[in-house]
Design goal:
- The protein is mostly helical.
- The chain has three helices and no strands.
- It is flat and about 35 Å long.
Length: 66
């Protein structure tokens, strides 16, 4: 089982393609919050790609706690 902290999960989620695109459009840096919204099509495209990808996060080996 993959054990990640809340901070690690947040960082992973915010660094995915849709969220990176919205920050780029807003001219924000990688750790900055933006008020712009994601387009539904961008979100759908991202999650469909996850489903269609043979290797998903669930199939990744568990990380060792440090």
């Amino acid at each position: 089982m993959l054990a990640l902290s809340a901070r690690e999960l947040s960082a992973m989620a915010q660094n995915t393609r849709p969220w990176s695109l919205v920050r780029t459009r807003a001219g924000a840096g990688p750790l900055e919050s933006v008020a712009d919204e994601l387009d539904d099509a961008e979100i759908a495209e991202y999650f469909v790609a996850l489903i269609d990808t043979p290797q998903t996060l669930a199939s990744q080996p568990a990380r060792q706690k440090t």
